[in-house]
Amino acid sequence: MPYYINPKMSSVFAAILLGIIQGLTEFLPVSSSGHLEITTFILEHFGSDSLPQENILMTVVLHAATALSTLLIFRDEVTQILRGLLQFKWNKEFQFSLKIILSMFPAALVGVLFDEQIDGLFGGRVLLVGSMLIVTGLLLFVADKAKSTTQSVSFRQSLIIGIAQAIAILPGISRSGATISTSVILGIDREKAARFSFLMVVPLIFGKMTKDILSGEMASESTALIPLIAGFVAAFITGLIACKWMISLVKKSQLKYFAYYCFTIGILAVIFTVL
Question: What pTM does this model have?
Answer without folding.
Answer: 0.83
